[in-house]
Amino acid sequence: MADGFSLFTDRSVVAMRVNGELKDLAATLETTDVVEPVTIDSPDGLNILRHSATHVLAQAVQTVNPAARLGIGPFVTDGFYYDFDVAEPFTPEDIKSLEKAMDRIIRQGQRFVRRIVTHDEARAELAAEPYKLELIGIKGGPGEGGDHSSTVDANNSATAEEESVEVGGAELTIYDNVDPKTGETVWKDLCRGPHLPSTRMIGNGFSLTRLAAAYWRGSEKNPQLQRIYGTAWPTKDALRAYQARQEEAAKRDHRKLGAELDLFSFPEEIGSGLPVFHPKGGIIRQEMENYSRQRHTEAGYDFVYTPHITKSTLFETSGHLDWYADGMFPPMHLDEERDDSGHVTRQGVDYYLKPMNCPFHNLIFKSRGRSYRELPLRLFEFGSVYRYEKSGVVHGLTRVRGMTQDDAHIYTTREGMKEELTSTLNFVLNLLADYGLNDYYLELSTKDPKKFVGSDEAWEEATQTLSEVATASGLELVADPGGAAFYGPKISVQARDALGRTWQMSTIQLDFNLPERFELEYTANDGTRQRPVMIHRALFGSVERFFAVLTEHYAGAFPVWLSPVQVVGIPVSEQYGPFLDDIVMRLKKVGVRAEVDHSDDRMQKKIRTHTKAKVPFQLIVGEEDQANNAVSFRFRDGTQDNGVPVTEAIRRIVEAIETRAQVVTSPSTAREAADVEAAVTGAAATDAASPVTQDVL
Ligand SMILES: [Zn+2]
Ligand SMILES: [Zn+2]
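^ thats the input. predicted complex w/ zinc ion below
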């Protein structure tokens, strides 16, 4: 009988899909099978490589420490991990010796051999591995076949999907690692597979990356295991390229830049996922919000304000307590009264911190009768919401427990829906571009045929409308069939940042459900009572998350309009200080955030300081400049434009701010010039020698 080895002689083929299901090359094939090769550099191939590498890691750990007990070892995005129960946590030195031990196993060329076992056999063979026994126990009947494409990102809680890597297959299987010389099984693991044919194919493109602690099966009630993360690539070069990308991302990490540039912090005393913004971060945030307010006012939005807490009844009406309770902070039980003997004389009420603003806006809509003449009614709020994120997933400003959404709810007629969606999407894209994000694609999430409310025609029309609007935008449109929430279809804007990473930004979500639950109505022009359609839309998503994305996109070198300090005057020596004071005074009068560095530092030191702080314009003045009533611009990339008349200099600065001129840091040049320059002055010399990518809108 044929197998994958006889079918595929190309060495880069490491597994195969048989009738859609991933299998080892050693699997036997029927003549009727539809077989596709899986190469090592394909997404499936990379997952198999990484899963095989994590087996080798576990073998290495048990070679060094036979007492280590095995948790699970799945692949994750760009890598893998394995959890171990060990008496002492691993150390960075352990990592080095484990990599060496892995290297030895890889060079031995051990074969991965699949073996089907019964539950009893598995229990007997894995008697020393209590965690594996538990997994065997939870595996009920046959699991789902097919691939196990884990898209789970590296965090501290293992999910059912990750666990399914061991026991998710149709039958229980053990993978033996067989020494090719002796034919002896040197190690084995409960695993659904598939695997590379041989450890040798892992090659030298692997690395162990970090250590973490993780609770068994993600529950704090379970023992804490020690997790080792790693990454694996088909070649050493691919590994190096990955490491360079990671380094660049680490340099731009908003948590690091947030501390370096004094923008925000997460005080332990306040609690996990609850940031405070410092004055400099406050300026950026205020500018972001002010511009958003201005644009929303121009686009016909009305501003509303709502409280942070509410009685539970509101979230019962909205349904949040039914389907979102896990994401909410527990209630505060208030206003209960008791007599001296402790009997309740007045029932208390549960209050919740709000996780969403929509129900509040619905009450504003409902506060009085509404006429079709008032529609579309667009209620906007920078609404602070609180969500109970598990401590393991809280991350910088991108995943927080308290955040402010730039949230709007638009109430419109069925007939007006299309026009409103069109203008909303255009508004969103336009505004994102003003913040410097102009590389995006759209994702259209459509109806899950098994789970939806509202009429088929309304869905049809809404989906059709969203699709037309999206297509008309000329942007790439990716379908997400069945991905909509039960209450309506959604468009989301996925923005690519300067490193090519994708972030989900704005969402425009239609809702046929809440208007029903809140019994929202308006009087149509024929006098009948009609139900409005509701559109939820957030542009930043949350101000915090958007702040983080912008910080990483710009690597902290914000465009001038967002920069906390826009201009710093640097006198060549202190005698030119008063001349600069005068210029700075004039700049301040027109609203520019400017200051003069009068410190005792030498000029070169001042330039370094303000370049590091990523101030977009340094104005340097020496004898010649002062004599000519001029200044010399110095930009963040170190280029200069000398002898610019003061009036012209002020004009250029003001123009750069008013036009929200953009500068995008190209990641390839970012390593040499971590601080990239806003050469927004047009005439500024950006000669070919300077590694600058500029993109002035
Ligand atoms: Zn496995
Ligand atoms: Zn909403």
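The mean pLDDT is 88.
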